[in-house]
UniProtKB/TrEMBL annotation:
Membrane-crossing residue ranges in chain numbering: none
Protein known as: Transcriptional regulator, AraC family with amidase-like domain
Keywords recorded for this protein, A-Z: DNA-binding, Transcription, Transcription regulation
Domain HTH araC/xylS-type: residue ranges: 212-310
InterPro entries per record: Class_I_gatase-like (IPR029062), DJ-1/PfpI (IPR002818), Homeodomain-like_sf (IPR009057), HTH_AraC (IPR018060), HTH_AraC-typ_CS (IPR018062), INH-QAR (IPR052158)
GO molecular function (one): DNA-binding transcription factor activity
């Protein structure tokens, strides 16, 4: 199988190397005669974001016979894809090639019209921009990749590894994917999505803003009962006025905002402390491990225990 990987000046070495590393490992392991080729808008060297010059990059004709065309990343500003690249992607798709947009590489795939009316995923920092440009696109933050058979997209950065391994698994089977994963010393399959990594900062605070004062107060009292009536009392507002003002200020209901602050604190505790999970549940105001687990899993598509193990594994590699 021939896999054509799009390269452009300014791409990071990591994004460019991931599909090459995974797909070339298939051949190195003797699993199948796969080969990768780098192509760009014009033949000639490109310069990576790190300042390295890469030679031997082919022109767009290198993608003409590829069974898979990969856009492994995209410009950080999310600029619209130029017509030649969009046309190449459409023509490749029309002749039966699989199209992969990894990380921000989802942008040119969407610009080519290959994701119209479909679910997709990209780096969470690009969610707002891509949905504004393509309102018919359904972005899903709960998964690491989405495979429609003809088009696959992946979430941010390292999720490209998961998507590429998935492509090995669907074409050569689980045993082959596991062998590639073992050789690269990565997990053959990871659960969860980007929701657990998306920053949800507090709105700007002003000393004379009663909602800001309530936000500060609530963060310091997460372990207590934080009913809307109590929060309204702290703000010295009626419940109805408080709910209306709170939503205008934060874009959320008081209950959903409190729940996310409790989940944020639970994440921090799981990452940085060895406290028992039942103690974390109490400290964050969930009351029980069951309630914490239900809310954590619904928000982040992984359990508190699995989340903690992931960070413990990361620390063991440092």
């Amino acid at each position: 199988m021939r896999i054509a990987i799009y390269a452009f000046t300014g791409i990071t070495m990591f994004h460019l190397s991931v599909p090459q590393m995974v797909f070339d490992e298939v051949a190195r392991q003797g699993l199948a005669p796969w080969e990768t080729v780098l192509f760009s808008d014009d033949a000639g060297p490109i310069t990576t974001a790190e300042g390295y010059q890469i030679t031997g990059v082919s022109g767009p004709e290198a993608a003409s016979g590829a069974e898979v065309v990969v856009v492994p990343s995209w410009y950080a500003d999310g600029r619209p894809a130029a017509h030649p690249l969009r046309q190449l992607l459409v023509e490749s798709h029309d002749r039966g090639a699989s199209i992969a947009g990894l990380c921000l590489g989802t942008f040119p795939i969407a610009d080519a019209g290959l994701l119209a009316g479909r679910r997709a995923v990209t780096h969470w920092q690009g969610f707002a921009q891509i949905t504004q440009r393509h309102p018919d696109l359904e972005i899903d933050d709960s998964v690491l990749y989405i495979d429609h058979g003809d088009v696959i997209t992946s979430a941010g950065t390292a999720s490209a590894l998961d998507a590429c391994l998935h492509m090995v698994r669907t074409r050569l089977g689980a045993a082959a994917a596991n062998q590639v994963a073992r050789s690269l010393v990565i997990a053959p399959h990871r659960d969860g999505g980007q929701a657990q990594y998306i920053q949800r900062p507090l709105p700007e605070h002003y000393d004379d803003d009663p909602i800001s004062r309530v936000l500060d107060w609530a963060v310091d009292h997460l372990e207590e009962s934080l009913s809307v009536e109590r929060l309204a009392a702290v703000a010295h507002m009626s419940v109805r006025t408080f709910i209306r003002t709170f939503r205008a200020s934060t874009g959320a209901t008081p209950a959903s905002w409190v729940r996310m602050r409790r989940l944020d604190e639970a994440r921090r505790a799981l990452e940085t402390t060895s406290l028992p999970i039942d103690q974390i549940a109490a400290n964050c105001g969930f009351g029980s491990v069951v309630t914490l687990r239900q809310n954590f899993t619904a928000a982040f598509k992984t359990t508190p225990s699995e989340y903690r193990r992931r960070f413990e594994a990361d620390d063991s590699l440092c």
